[in-house]
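This part of the workshop introduces the protein records we will be handling. An example says more than a description, so a record of this kind follows:
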Amino acid sequence: MAVTVAPPVGLRDPERPLRGREALIERVESALSAPGSPRVQVLCGLGGSGKTAIALELACSRLSREQQVWWVDARQSGTLEAGLRAIARQAGASEDELRAGDAVDVLWSYAAQFERPWLLVVDNADDPALLNGPGRLSEGTGWIRAPAAGRGAVLVTSRDSTPQTWGGGCLLHPVRPLTGDGVTDAAQVLRDHAGERAGSFADARQLARRLGGLPLALRLAGTYLADANAVPAPYREPDMPVDFCSYQAALDRGLEHVDRANVIEQTWTMSLKLLEQQGMSLARPLLRLIATFADAPLPYTLLLTPKTLADAGELAQLDGPGVWTLLTALAGLGLVDFEPATGSSALPVLRVHPLVRDASLDHTALGTAIQAVHSSALASETGRPEDPDYWEHWTLLQPHALDLFHRIASSESTDQTIANAAATMANLAARHLRIKGLYGQAHTELEAVLVRRRAILGDTHPHTLSTRHELGLVLRDLGEVEQARTELEAVLAHRRAIWGDTHSDTLTARHNLAMVLRELGEVEQARTEFVAVLAHRRAILGDTHPDTLTARHELGMVLRQLGEVEQPRIEFMAVLTHRRAILGDTHPHTLTARHNLAMVLRELGEVEQARTELGAVLAHRRAILGDTHPHTLTARHNLAMVLREPGEVEQARTELEAVLAHRRAIWGDTHSDTLTVRQNLAMVLRELGEVEQARTELGAVLTHRRAILGDTHPDTLTARHNLAMVLRDLGEVEQARTELDSVLAHRRAILGDTHPHTLTARHNLAMVLRDLGEVEQARTEMEAVLAHRRAILGDTHPHTLTARHNLAALQQPRAVD
């Protein structure tokens, strides 16, 4: 067979330099030249990643130093053997020696005696078995061997990156696409081939990312655009891409729109054919399935197991070792990339190059992918979305569940089983988003799921009601409390009609509706509901069941809102004790109980203990949920309020400003939680003497509260009360009196005479009366407030002491300015 072993230097274009490979070339060159390291160097990676171009760059460097370079194509056994025999002849072996049975040994014997430094490049050794010859590559007895020390160097390019294939005599150098920090080089490659008419560098970067930084794809795209721009406009096809943006748009419609010669697809088809020749006929359908999942890290130990593939057609025949063999084979050829688990509980994932995904995508595998995610989502090994021990699982499953749901929803599929499975897993994924504080995204996803469930199952099916219930909870989280009430009341009515009053799902809806009623200011009705739910749960589930403890905790919240401080303390301490024993110290539910107990301690005057507890809760929430989760921000907000009481007002201001910035970014200006922070920050500004700014803030808060909640909601009255205090500071005492009279009347009607908020309004009205010279009436009011506070809070509570101090001040004549 006639062959040439000269390096193909004509493939190298000096006007289009090899980009982004400088460090790799330096590393390989160092390994090739290192004394005492007589190993075969292997450039390995995905087809199209530029292995040959790197090898050619190294070869040309050797040629420039007048070294001998031999280049052999290893795609076919015939050309490989013919090339190696040609090298042996050039090294001095005779035809007679090469006709003997030990031609391999002859080759390496003469190579060891060759008078000049040499480099042997074995290109496209994608099937390393061809390199065995009469021996074995991994044992150093094949056609390709490690050269004798100081006598030469061997460089191989291959798609196979499996260490076991190559053995200890080979050093592997992975060749990866130009991604991450290399995307700038990838963009420049595009511009090198396409020219400047194809668009801006920013557009080139974006397309380079979409192409996954694969050099083959970059070159093809750039060349395509250069050719397209060379065609006069009247002769172009109407949809022909002529710039980076239009090329990406065409690619997003399908790889066939920009790769009509199937060069990219054929690159990986060759890899799959190689696996099929090795007896792995299921490698192709498995890759098709992998490509069907979302373009996100794939937790293969959750989604690609015999259990999840039980309904996957021909893949159902695979056992565990069979799945693993195929995955490692696909990874060995660079068709998938394994990413190791980080941390003791982390899950390993794999990724697929975006173009491999494009080329392998087969919509007929959509149902199989949905069944795999559905099976995994309901498996005990995956856990529930709200369980912190499994949050990592759900973080990885969520993008696949939602992507597959939207794709099946927009398809023409009429398979109800698949559609229901997709909606179920999307519902669970949306619940996970809510648990992680991503309320807006959860709301969007749940609305989409609800539309599908209503269409498939009807309005009253349990699954439809489950989604509607979940949507009600998210609406509450988003501050849309009236809409949440509407949803939860409807769900409760249906569940009562279907299952009766004491079914677990009915009680859950009743419990969550009570939480909404509490936020709407209907506190007595909320109390009635929680008492009833708690009684049913105790009778059915027992005192220590998590659902019972949740009802008891929420009853404590209502009692606190009703002004009962000691009883909530008892409830929260009991719940906290049980939750610590059942869930541990750092479970979110435990931290919630600890947080709310701290708030009660603050109201009881035990400020230092409250500060300690809130500091600990904040530290745990930051570690578990992150800095910007709503629950973390709530703990930070309340810790700031505790800091304010001992006089650390500047630190409180700093904290509240930080919390406000986060809440505005997450919720916007009019969410209830944003307004609460804004209101409390205004009161801190008042204490710091910035009274005009405090007035502006409280005026804005009051306007929003009235518009959203109405005039008599407790939060509206609080804003009105605080604005009155600022008006007093500004000398607008008559207006302050008018506001406080009105607030006090509403609070008496809603909360009763002895509620702490009523007493606060009465106390501050007394101070205004004193300012107006109505000292006797002021004294009467303050004496009444002091009596109630002593009875409720005791003699040494800070609020009692404040009333006592101000009553004493009323005995003294007021200084005249």
